[in-house]
């Protein structure tokens, strides 16, 4: 039998899945393209994905995706003709209310929207349970690396007490370029030219995108009380090649990390640039690579792979569609972990990397100055009136006291946490 939409020959045993796309931008059009280009492999899995319509704002906009019916008014959108809704609008509204509308109709929803899942994923999952359907969001966190559904199905793995990762490929690319001597602005332009960043890449550069992804992971670990703004977050736009060069002389690289430890007394979080010692496995990753380490030491599990573009994101969405269509119901677990939000509002105690500009004293005097403020220097590298220090482990209060005192003398300080290097079964800080 020949399918009228795709022109492909359809095995009658193949299940036709009618998909409604909320959003027909970069990812929405890629989903429709991949549904056609991968129809052979999808057919082998017993599924034919038919995109029956898409919601968009501007009917006059040029589109590169297949020509499917477009709707601008959600009230005209044929929800009840859809077996599955794919939400790729971005942002919170109208994405939240339209996803909720589909779930109330008992229609499963697949989304790539991390802002939506971080802010309302738990409510939407509860709504899905109530209406005997499901919400899938593998593409919302490291779309190129299948970790979300794995963690969702494994409460013991996701509750390992710590997440550490590089969750944003755009900021990773920019810092990798800065490490090669490019300015922040030039690296951002290159990221846009290569299609890794949108011209308005504030969410990537400010750390908000990574904070949303880390929040989603913490929800998967059962900690429903965490909201994005709990996580101490800093952007990467004040970093320059000289910071990277001095980090290199102290045997490290600067990477955009997302870190949360929540299993014990040293709970805390950080989303932003960090000094990563070259002995740490993240140091060897470059460009747009993503990584997530769950747990620490010998029990850690690491997921790693390429940062996602539109096509990879679309393929991940379609893999979710296949799971839904084949009757799998992702266990949307009720949150079971204790509240940890308050503990995550602090940066974990550890060693610190300080990059100092306009230093007028000798390295010896600087070391004395820091030691007197309970922030002993362990390694120092200097270059004219700039220098960098790795300190011993110290609480954040010692760091901020020392930074304030240095800045009062006219020195400009950029500080970063040092990512601990884990050895079998325990954490060892580089300091
Ligand atoms: N781009 C990636 O590589 C990537 C990777 C992983 C996850 N994601 C996530 O996927 C989602 C979509 O990203 P994208 O890059 O495809 O975004 P995009 O290109 O901006 O597309 C958004 C689409 O939604 C439509 N839209 C937005 N607001 C609307 C409204 N109020 N009413 C009707 N239509 C509306 C837009 O319509 P018009 O076309 O008419 O403007 C557009 O078709 C986001 O949540 C993003 O975080 C993207």
Structure write-up:
There is one protein chain. The chain is α/β, with parallel strands linked by helices and 431 residues long. It folds into three domains: 15-136, Rossmann fold, CATH 3.40.50; 154-307, Dihydrodipicolinate Reductase, domain 2, CATH 3.30.360.10; 352-428, ACT domain (Alpha-Beta Plaits). It contains 15 helices and 17 strands. The chain has helices spanning 26-37, 39-44, 95-104, 114-130, 148-153, 155-158, 169-179, 184-193, 202-206, 208-220, 241-249, 310-325, 341-344, 363-372, 396-408; strands at 15-22, 47-55, 70-71, 84-87, 109-111, 135-136, 162-166, 252-261, 268-277, 290-294, 301-305, 352-357, 377-383, 386-391, 412-417, 421-423, 426-428. The strands form four sheets. A six-stranded parallel beta sheet has the order 3-2-1-4-5-6, sandwiched between helices. A five-stranded antiparallel beta sheet has the order 9-8-7-10-11. A hairpin with a 6-residue loop joins strand 10 (290-294) and strand 11. Helix 1 (26-37) packs across helix 12 and helix 3 (95-104) packs parallel to helix 4 (114-130). The longest helix is centred in the N-terminal third of the chain and has 17 residues, at 114-130. The radius of gyration is 24 Å and the shape is elongated. Mean pLDDT is 92; it is low at 423-431. Bound molecules: NADP nicotinamide-adenine-dinucleotide phosphate. Residues 23-28, 55-58, 61, 88-90, 94, 112-114, 139, 143, 308-310, 313 line the site of NADP nicotinamide-adenine-dinucleotide phosphate.
């Amino acid at each position: 039998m020949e399918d009228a939409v795709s022109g492909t020959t359809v095995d009658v045993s193949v299940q036709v899945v009618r998909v409604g796309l909320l959003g027909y931008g970069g990812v929405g059009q890629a989903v429709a393209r991949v549904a056609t280009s991968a129809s052979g492999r999808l057919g082998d899995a017993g599924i034919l994905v038919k995109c029956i319509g898409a919601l968009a704002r501007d009917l006059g906009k040029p589109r590169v995706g297949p020509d499917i019916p477009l709707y601008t008014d959600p009230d005209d959108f044929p929800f009840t003709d859809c077996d599955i809704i794919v939400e790729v609008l971005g942002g919170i509204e109208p994405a939240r209310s339209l996803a909720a509308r589909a779930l109330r109709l008992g229609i499963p929803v697949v989304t790539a929207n991390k802002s939506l899942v971080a802010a309302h994923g738990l409510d939407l999952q509860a709504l899905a349970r109530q209406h005997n359907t499901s919400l899938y969001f593998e593409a919302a966190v490291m779309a190129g690396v299948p970790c979300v559904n794995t963690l969702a199905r494994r409460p013991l793995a996701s509750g390992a007490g710590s997440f550490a990762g590089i969750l944003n490929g755009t900021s990773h690319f920019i810092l990798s370029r800065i490490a090669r001597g490019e300015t922040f602005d030039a690296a951002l332009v290159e990221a846009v030219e290569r299609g890794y960043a949108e011209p308005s890449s504030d969410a990537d550069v400010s750390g908000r995108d990574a904070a949303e992804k880390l929040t989603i992971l913490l929800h998967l670990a059962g900690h429903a009380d965490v909201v994005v703004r709990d996580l101490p977050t800093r952007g990467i736009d004040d970093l320059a090649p000289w910071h990277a060069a001095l980090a290199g002389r102290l045997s490290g690289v600067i990477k955009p990390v997302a870190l949360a430890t929540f299993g014990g007394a040293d709970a805390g979080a950080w989303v932003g640039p960090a000094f990563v010692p070259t002995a740490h496995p993240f140091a060897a990753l470059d460009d747009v690579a993503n990584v997530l380490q769950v747990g620490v030491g010998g029990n850690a599990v690491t997921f790693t792979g390429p940062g996602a573009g539109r096509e990879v994101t679309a393929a991940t969405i379609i893999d979710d569609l296949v799971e839904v269509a084949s009757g799998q119901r992702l266990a949307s677990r009720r949150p079971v972990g204790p509240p940890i939000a308050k503990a995550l509002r602090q940066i974990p105690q550890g060693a610190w990397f300080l990059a100092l500009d306009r230093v007028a004293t000798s390295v010896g005097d600087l070391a004395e100055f820091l030691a007197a403020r309970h922030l002993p220097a362990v390694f120092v590298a200097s270059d004219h009136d700039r220098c960098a220090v790795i300190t011993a482990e110290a609480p954040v209060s010692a760091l901020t006291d020392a930074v304030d005192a240095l800045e009062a003398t006219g020195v400009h300080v950029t500080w970063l946490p040092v990512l601990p290097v884990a050895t079998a079964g325990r954490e060892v800080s580089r300091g």
